Each structure stands twice: as structure tokens, then as C-alpha cells.
């Protein structure tokens, strides 16, 4: 169901127009980002409103990624990019500004500065016992179609509070 306040739902409903549409079918829409990080920076959305990918049934998430993969090839060919970054943010802590599921497909060029994740998140050196505890915690939060909770404003991560 469309979210009344959601800018991407408004786009799907035709209430606002994306500046440059790249792809559309019955279920998906892709358009150029209005604040492109590089020429050809494309946003891929589902027409159905989900806030985050964690809320999507796994099959739907898989189908969305098939399209993202296909459009990544089009974006790479269309911009003659040297590489492609596929980025997907979930919740404010990750940098998500628009609370409607979307993937960023961003052309990358060898002429750019350092392309690594290191430019956004610094490396944290962690002892092996902490890594093992975190891995166990992740494994116990899995299963098929695992459920998750919406994040609270501040939640102390006592599992790795020192990092
Ligand atoms: P995120 O931070 O992952 O939520 O990214 C949201 C992206 O949507 C940003 O890069 C915005 O520039 C982009 N965006 C927001 N509104 C529009 C719009 N009307 N048309 C195209 N891109 C948009
Ligand atoms: Zn929406």
C-alpha cells in the first residue's frame, strides 16, 4: 500500500515526475538520482512500498536484485564506467534518507579518488574472540525469513561496545 508521505510512492503514483526515468514496468521504477554522486547514478525502487529491504519477503528481494543486476550492466555500458557500486541503505543509522526501499547503482571511474569502503567507515581492529562472539550472535539471528525489530533511537551494543 502506498505511503501518503512517501516521495517515492508519490513518484510511482505520478504525483511527481522523476527528472529522468531509466526503466519502468508494472512492479519497478528506475530513475536518475537528483543528487548524483557520479553521472548515471541510478535509483531502483519497487512500486510497492517497503521501508527497508529487511521488510521484504526474500523472493521479492531476490527479484528486485535481479533487476538491479540487469540495470547495473545498462548503467555501466551507458556511462562507459570502469566499475559499478551497488549501495542499499536501511534505516537512518546507515544513511537512509528516503524510507522507501531503493538501490543505488553508481558508476565508478578509475580517475576517482580512493574507491574503498574505508572512505566512509574506518577499519576497526577486533580480537578473534570478539569476532567469534559477533559471528555466533549473527548466526543465532538467522533462519529462513528471519524477523527483525525496527531500531530504537539509542541502543547500547554491549556485545562490542568498545569498538
Ligand atoms: P538514501 O540516502 O539511500 O535514502 O538515498 C536517497 C536518494 O534519493 C538520494 O541520493 C537522493 O538524492 C535521491 N532522491 C530523493 N528524491 C529524489 C527525486 N525526487 N528524484 C530523484 N532522486 C531523488
Ligand atoms: Zn513509498
Notes on the structure:
The protein is α+β, with helices and mostly antiparallel strands. The chain has a domain at 7-119: HIT family, subunit A. Helices cover 25% and strands 16% of the residues. It has a 5-stranded antiparallel β-sheet, with helices on one face. A hairpin with a 3-residue loop joins strand 1 and strand 2. The site of adenosine monophosphate has 12 residues, from loops.
Features:
163 residues; alpha+beta; HIT family, subunit A; five-stranded antiparallel beta sheet; globular; binds adenosine monophosphate; binds zinc ion
Question: Which helices and strands, and how do they pair?
Answer:
Blueprint: H1 7-12, E1 21-24, E2 28-32, E3 42-46, H2 58-79, E4 83-87, E5 102-108, H3 128-140
Antiparallel strand pairs: 1-2, 2-3, 3-5, 4-5
Structural class: alpha+beta
Rg over C-alpha atoms, rounded to the nearest angstrom: 18 Å
Could you give the order of strands across the largest sheet?
A: 1-2-3-5-4
Bound small molecules, by name, code or SMILES, are: adenosine monophosphate, zinc ion
Give the CA-CA distance, first to last residue: 39 Å
Order of helices and strands: HEEEHEEH
Helical content band: 25-40%
Average of pLDDT: 90
Please name the CATH topology of the domain at 7-119: HIT family, subunit A
Total helical segments: 3
The level-1 CATH class of the domain at 7-119: Alpha Beta
* Percent of sequence in beta strands: 15-25%
In short:
The protein is 25% helix and 16% strand.
Amino acid at each position: 500500500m502506498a505511503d501518503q508521505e512517501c516521495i517515492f510512492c508519490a513518484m510511482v503514483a505520478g504525483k511527481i515526475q522523476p527528472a529522468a526515468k531509466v526503466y519502468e514496468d508494472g512492479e519497478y521504477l528506475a530513475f536518475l538520482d537528483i543528487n548524483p554522486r557520479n553521472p548515471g547514478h541510478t535509483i531502483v525502487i519497487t512500486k510497492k512500498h517497503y521501508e527497508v529491504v529487511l521488510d521484504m519477503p526474500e523472493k521479492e528481494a531476490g527479484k528486485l536484485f535481479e533487476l538491479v543486476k540487469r540495470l547495473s550492466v545498462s548503467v555501466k555500458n551507458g556511462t562507459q564506467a570502469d566499475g559499478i557500486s551497488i549501495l542499499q541503505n536501511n534505516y537512518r543509522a546507515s544513511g537512509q534518507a528516503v524510507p522507501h526501499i531503493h538501490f543505488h547503482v553508481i558508476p565508478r571511474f578509475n580517475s576517482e579518488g580512493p574507491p574503498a569502503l574505508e572512505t566512509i567507515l574506518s577499519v576497526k581492529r577486533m580480537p578473534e574472540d570478539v569476532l567469534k562472539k559477533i559471528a555466533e550472535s549473527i548466526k543465532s539471528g538467522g533462519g529462513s525469513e528471519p524477523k527483525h525489530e525496527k531500531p530504537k533511537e539509542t541502543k547500547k551494543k554491549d556485545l562490542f561496545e568498545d569498538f
